Amino acid sequence: MCVFKRCCFCNVIFCVVCSFSNWQDYYKSGIIRCPDGISIPELREACDYLCISFDYSTIKCRDLSALMHELSNDGARRQFEFYLEEMVLPLMVASAQSGERECHIVVLTDDDVVDWDEEYPPQMGEEYSQIIYSTKLYRFFKYIENRDVAKSVLKERGLKKIRLGIEGYPTYKEKVKKRPGGRPEVIYNYVQRPFIRMSWEKEEGKSRHVDFQCVKSKSITNLAAAAADIPQDQLVVMHPGPQVDELDILPNHPPPGQHYSNNFNNEPDPDAPSPAV
């Protein structure tokens, strides 16, 4: 059992032992009254362990803030799973069908208008972003707690490199300024809107094929030199001898009394000894 599961199990046992009478009351009346000293997250773990429904009709406690927080997390999870299937997933599929390995989605409101200058578009890479026009999803992502819930849902669905936050997005051109030299500079109006960025690949931008430049040459017989990664062109003494097929094409040995020279014109070598008479 991992440490996390062990801790959860200990919390469950602690809750059950400390409030055993409260569990008996639940099976009689259908209501659990949270005892003092037990936090709502601990009570939630105990309910999950005992397969007891955790909602406002079964849980009664004085800490309404903590109770509402847990209920909001449940509601946010259900709501985002709906948004994921209806709004986000179609854009992910469109990116995958075009050969992309990740998806960058910006959430705008229903009233936002995007009007870029065709000649001078924004130079921030927004042209690769996909847009969801939904005021409901925009309001959902305003809360950092909802973004945390959404991130956990995306992780559970197997996605990688997940980023959720708020960023500036250009909507329309405000004015054009002239820089020194006559070059125009377009100023856009930016609005702060939620964004989602995720990938479905484990390693982005890394080849899964063998890089043959990193493979050690079999001609290196010195293991110490191979481990030290010495370039092969510096290992003159480590080259193996010629193979059998190479020996076959070597010239025959000269007869006794003759030797090789660099004289390619078949002229007699003056330094060579005179033949015996």
TrEMBL record:
Query: What InterPro entries does the record point to?
Result: BTBD10/KCTD20, BTBD10/KCTD20_BTB/POZ
- Pfam families documented for this protein: BTB_3
Q: What is its main location?
A: cytoplasm
Q: Signal peptide: which range, if any?
A: 1-23
Report the protein name in the record: BTB POZ domain-containing 10 isoform X1
List where the protein spans the membrane: none
User: Which residue intervals make up region (Disordered)?
Assistant: 244-277
Q: What are its GO biological-process terms?
A: positive regulation of phosphorylation
Organism domain of life: Eukaryota
